[in-house]
Amino acid sequence: MYLFKRSNDLKKHLDLVRKSNKSIGFVPTMGALHSGHLSLIQAAKKENDVVICSIFINPTQFNDPKDFEKYPITIEEDIKKLNDASTDILFLPSVEEMYPEGLSANETYDFGELETILEGKFRPGHFQGVGRIVHKLLDIVQPHKLFMGQKDLQQCLIIRKLLIITNSPVELVVCPTMRESSGLAMSSRNERLSPAARKKAVAIYQELEKIQQEFSKGLYFLEAAREAADNLKKQGFEPEYVDVLILDNGDLRHISEPPGNNTVVVAVAAWLDGIRLIDNMILQGAL
Ligand SMILES: Nc1ncnc2c1ncn2[C@@H]1O[C@H](COP(=O)(O)OP(=O)(O)OP(=O)(O)O)[C@@H](O)[C@H]1O
Ligand SMILES: CC(C)(CO)[C@@H](O)C(=O)[O-]
Ligand code: BAL
């Protein structure tokens, strides 16, 4: 695996790759890699000749400084996992390399209402930071395809908008959420849970499944979503939202009428043990 820390060196290498008519698949990450990330690498390998992964803990997307300070770093293990997965290139830039202009915001993207709900509501500024770094990474890598996980569903929709806003030819491929055998969505932040909390965290998935069951019966899924928040509270979680939404022309809207044939999703964010966990399920349709 090639390792690049400087964007100019990486760009030169990728120019040669493109000249030899090879397709490039890109998997951006913040490291602390788990099987969810590796599933994105596998998907990228299937669809491209060359696969590049980036590891960069992006300061501008953290609205909570404590979350940034505590974000897990396991770079040695990450390199081994990427090598074992036959990743072709790792891009490991520094903050100075990615933000020579400094961290304060100098560009704002108009993501519309999508930025004001769910993660956008509870993590102010988060998606501007995500947009800023993904825009920069795409300018450097210029991949044919970009692979991201459904676990961060709203992020996928934001990036879809970013690609439109920036007139990018890149194709976004959304990959399914990898789960532990318990059902818990894999996440780097799970590493910060105590063993007891990690067991308890499965309740998020269980509540999502209950809502799915109610939805397939067609009746009381909104009540089930409200009950889910109560059930999580009773078990010691602090839920921020359990919301059912429809996908409407690239945006998510809270359900106010029967969903018809629209894609319907349920999304959850809840704190447990000082760790913020998110998950979601598609109840109908596709992203
Ligand atoms: N369980 C998963 N299954 C599939 N893809 C995933 C999973 N978890 C994360 N990803 C995807 O991996 C990419 C990098 O995500 P990131 O490095 O933030 O990992 P993470 O596990 O989501 O960490 P966090 O604790 O910040 O949620 C994103 O596109 C994300 O959606
Ligand atoms: C897309 C991303 C790598 C941007 O920093 C990050 O938000 C993530 O890991 O999901
Ligand atoms: N996994 C999305 C990136 C973040 O939580 O900041």
TrEMBL record:
<comment type="similarity">
    <text>Belongs to the pantothenate synthetase family.</text>
</comment>
<dbReference type="InterPro" id="IPR042176">
    <property type="entry name" value="Pantoate_ligase_C"/>
</dbReference>
<keyword id="KW-0436">Ligase</keyword>
<keyword id="KW-0067">ATP-binding</keyword>
<protein>
    <recommendedName>
        <fullName>Pantothenate synthetase</fullName>
        <ecNumber>6.3.2.1</ecNumber>
    </recommendedName>
</protein>
<keyword id="KW-0566">Pantothenate biosynthesis</keyword>
<keyword id="KW-0963">Cytoplasm</keyword>
<comment type="pathway">
    <text>Cofactor biosynthesis; (R)-pantothenate biosynthesis; (R)-pantothenate from (R)-pantoate and beta-alanine: step 1/1.</text>
</comment>
<dbReference type="Pfam" id="PF02569">
    <property type="entry name" value="Pantoate_ligase"/>
</dbReference>
<feature type="active site" description="Proton donor">
    <location>
        <position position="37"/>
    </location>
</feature>
<dbReference type="GO" id="GO:0015940">
    <property type="term" value="P:pantothenate biosynthetic process"/>
</dbReference>
<feature type="binding site">
    <location>
        <begin position="30"/>
        <end position="37"/>
    </location>
    <ligand>
        <name>ATP</name>
    </ligand>
</feature>
<feature type="binding site">
    <location>
        <position position="61"/>
    </location>
    <ligand>
        <name>beta-alanine</name>
    </ligand>
</feature>
<dbReference type="GO" id="GO:0005524">
    <property type="term" value="F:ATP binding"/>
</dbReference>
<dbReference type="GO" id="GO:0005829">
    <property type="term" value="C:cytosol"/>
</dbReference>
<comment type="function">
    <text>Catalyzes the condensation of pantoate with beta-alanine in an ATP-dependent reaction via a pantoyl-adenylate intermediate.</text>
</comment>
<feature type="binding site">
    <location>
        <begin position="186"/>
        <end position="189"/>
    </location>
    <ligand>
        <name>ATP</name>
    </ligand>
</feature>
<dbReference type="GO" id="GO:0004592">
    <property type="term" value="F:pantoate-beta-alanine ligase activity"/>
</dbReference>
<dbReference type="InterPro" id="IPR003721">
    <property type="entry name" value="Pantoate_ligase"/>
</dbReference>
<feature type="binding site">
    <location>
        <begin position="149"/>
        <end position="152"/>
    </location>
    <ligand>
        <name>ATP</name>
    </ligand>
</feature>
<feature type="binding site">
    <location>
        <position position="61"/>
    </location>
    <ligand>
        <name>(R)-pantoate</name>
    </ligand>
</feature>
<dbReference type="InterPro" id="IPR014729">
    <property type="entry name" value="Rossmann-like_a/b/a_fold"/>
</dbReference>
<feature type="binding site">
    <location>
        <position position="155"/>
    </location>
    <ligand>
        <name>(R)-pantoate</name>
    </ligand>
</feature>
<comment type="subunit">
    <text>Homodimer.</text>
</comment>
<keyword id="KW-0547">Nucleotide-binding</keyword>
